[in-house]
Amino acid sequence: MRILIVEDETSIANFIRDGLQEEGFAVDVSDNGKEGLQLALDFVEEYDVILLDWMLPGLNGIEICRNIRKENTVVPIIFLTAKDTVDDVIFGLEAGANDYIRKPFSFEELLARIRVHMRKNETQPFLFSAAGIELDIDKHSVTKKGVPVELTQKEFSLLEYFLRNKGKVCRRTGIIEKVWDIHFDYDTSVIDVYINALRKKLDEPGKPSIITTVRGIGYKIEDDE
Ligand code: CA
User: Fold this and answer.
1) Cα-to-centroid distance, 58 and ligand 1 (Å)
2) Residue 185 C-alpha to ligand 1 middle, in angstroms?
3) 15-53: per-residue pLDDT in tens?
4) Which partner from 34, 79, 92, 124 sits 20 to 30 angstroms from 68, CA to CA?
5) Number of Cβ within a 10 Å radius of residue 138
6) Predicted model pTM
7) Which residues of the chain have pLDDT under 50?
């Protein structure tokens, strides 16, 4: 799950970025309208939601929104705005935004809006299961044969990635990019630490691991449906 934030107020951008990263999102931030639009257009297929400030240096949020909509009609766009007169809000929605949120807002409020719009746009389910394991994105919970399992944020994101791709081999480079949000040459041995932790929490003693090692390539969870 990847989110673009275009916001020139550093304190607000950092506040949102840190909160979203804690929730397991990959986040890109731009503090400039032109650069923000370029990022949005270059990676529009990658973004699950775009958060746009209204007043920005370079290009304002309305213009960015209109330009994105020329290329892509699906990606949810939410305005972050102090402009809260009815006319301004209508103007924003007519430019192609899906929603707006007024500053100041609480992080929980923003997160709830993001989830609503991701769900509308989401063709995949928010519940994933395999091998007796169930992962619920909405509740942020994991159960094993109905019994809750406590996972750290990264363990959760890694398991989510495997379940979204169940039946397929997940390559180590893909895992490091999608789960750790690292796009340069990087020691991927960190993955092993998390695989071991997940296996300890999810596997049945004495039985083969639900996470299969595909030697020299990566890992997979079998699709049992
Ligand atoms: Ca601004």
Assistant:
1) 11
2) 34
3) 999 999 998 899 999 999 999 999 999 988 889 999 999
4) 124
5) 9
6) 0.60
7) none
